[in-house]
Design goal:
By secondary structure, the protein is α+β, with helices and mostly antiparallel strands. It contains twelve helices and nine strands. Strands 5-2-1-8-9 form a five-stranded antiparallel sheet, with helices on one face. A four-stranded antiparallel sheet has the order 4-3-6-7, with no helix packed on it. Helix 8 runs antiparallel to helix 9, helix 8 (about 285-305) crosses helix 12 and helix 10 runs antiparallel to helix 12. The longest helix is centred in the middle third of the chain and has 29 residues, at about 145-170. The two termini are about 30 Å apart.
């Protein structure tokens, strides 16, 4: 990721957080200047321009009534690895008002909590007419329910595109297959990518109970959310299967004459469109091993792509890379049983076949000794993947060293001109840090050169 893109996204998200804190406070008077940023140029150089970072601040033009001095003192803790050229902002929340409810004549550092918005800040259409009323009516205030809806839709998209590609291959087999196994792998990779793009900003875009379990074990997902995630993922896959069947209803009838067959060895079998079934050579033990290891590979890849201390790609690219990871797993390990690696992707559609005309055979296949393998195996595989990644990579990073910065800044004559009086670390020693202050329009004033 380039330094320019990093700073731009940080400024935009910090801008939103600052505007939210200003608009929702409802107290105080006085005009507030546009969001401002203190730029830490410590690690910025021609060799590593991406190390430059911006610290978002908000400055009020109106002095605090009880402010003894126009000088500002504020602390901004910084996480510094062993290398002094690698720093990450860790900005605590702070109010732009003092204890009396008046705007402060100082710098206020604001942490951007993933650019979260409160219910009062939700972006709505023009506050008149039916669009506004509809938006207010359909807005859900419960954050857990919102995450569940996102997981539902993302899982829905996963099946619509992924199993849709399977249906295209199976139902066209008699008249000349439209596509092949390779197209199914590509479609599933794209289905995962688009599903994560749709749900990722709200819920993280797990789309997979095994992934949700692994994230909960790592502490990246609260355990109280796991049940909602599971339910949403299974329901999304079930509903998508019903929609897929409705779309291809005529093709189903043309293929099997209305007689639904499960056994994949039969030329008219169609149950494999929805759920996975093993090759004749595969034993239940071999299938379990297949699912455990294939899902562990998926989990290791996801953890690597989302580990910010590793060579993590830009967030906007992660869904595409996860999709490519799924495609790679399918191309490498799809022969045995179709690489389900996702309990919801297998059990949700299998439940649909139970009520959609295939009867109990999707569950009784091989004397009830298969349907549970694509459910239990991926959960075990996700736990294995978490253990392997943490053992070999996640727990091996050098410890972070925490320090902090204290800035003293004064506004000149109430104008958008500033003077940096002092920059010190939390231990009281002077910083040898070049610092600049910039306004939203991009103008920058160099305030302190390296000492």
């Amino acid at each position: 990721m380039s330094g320019h893109n990093t700073n731009s996204s940080l400024e935009n998200s910090a801008d939103n957080a600052l505007l939210n804190s200003t608009s929702t406070s409802g107290r105080g008077t006085g005009r507030r200047s546009p969001p401002t940023y203190v730029r830490d140029l410590t690690a910025s150089s021609s060799e590593s321009p991406s190390r430059e970072r911006n610290i978002p601040i908000q400055i009020s033009d109106q002095p605090a009534q009880h402010s003894p001095s126009p000088l500002t003192r504020t602390r901004a803790p910084v996480i510094s690895p062993s290398s002094p050229t690698e720093r990450e902002p860790f900005l605590p929340p702070a109010s732009i008002l003092d204890s009396s409810g008046q705007p402060r004549n100082n710098l206020t550092l604001v942490r951007d909590y993933d650019n979260e918005m409160t219910d009062a800040d939700v972006a709505l259409p023009d506050r008149t007419g039916w669009r506004y009323k509809l938006a207010r009516t359909t807005h859900i205030s419960n954050p857990l329910l919102r995450e569940g809806l996102a997981e539902f839709l993302g899982s829905f998209i996963l099946i619509i595109f992924g199993n849709g590609a399977v249906a295209e291959v199976v139902l066209s087999a008699k008249t000349g297959a439209v596509n092949n196994f390779f197209s199914i792998n590509i479609a599933y990779g794209l289905a995962v990518a688009f599903g994560v793009y749709i749900a990722g900003g709200v819920s993280g875009g797990h789309l997979n109970p095994a992934v949700s379990l692994g994230m909960a074990v790592l502490g990246k997902l609260q355990w109280r959310k796991v049940g909602i995630y599971f339910l949403a993922q299974y329901l999304g896959c079930f509903v998508a299967s019903a929609v897929l069947y409705a779309i291809y209803a005529d093709a189903f009838y043309a293929h099997d004459g209305g007689y639904r067959i499960t056994n994949p060895a039969h030329p008219n079998a169609t149950a494999s469109i929805f759920a996975s079934y093993p090759q004749e050579h595969l034993t239940w033990g071999g299938g379990l091993v297949d699912q455990i290891f294939a899902t562990s590979f998926l989990m290791i890849g996801i953890l690597a792509l989302t580990d910010e201390r590793n060579t993590a790609p830009p967030k906007g690219v992660v869904p595409i890379l996860v999709g490519l990871l799924v495609t790679a797993i399918g191309l490498s390990y799809g022969y045995n049983c179709g690489f389900p690696v996702n309990p919801a992707r297998d059990l949700g559609p299998r439940l649909f076949t139970l009520v959609g005309g295939w009867g109990v055979e999707p569950f009784s296949f091989r004397n009830h000794n298969w349907f549970w393998i694509p459910v239990i195996g991926p959960h075990l595989g996700a736990l294995l993947g978490v253990a392997v990644y943490q053992l070999f990579v996640g727990n091996q990073w050098p410890p972070l060293q925490r320090s902090g910065i204290e800035l003293q800044v004064v506004r000149k004559n109430g104008l958008d001109e500033y003077e940096l009086v002092k920059a010190r670390d939390v231990r009281g020693s002077d910083l040898t840090v070049p610092v600049a202050i910039s306004t939203k329009d991009g103008t920058t004033q160099q305030l302190l050169e390296t000492r």
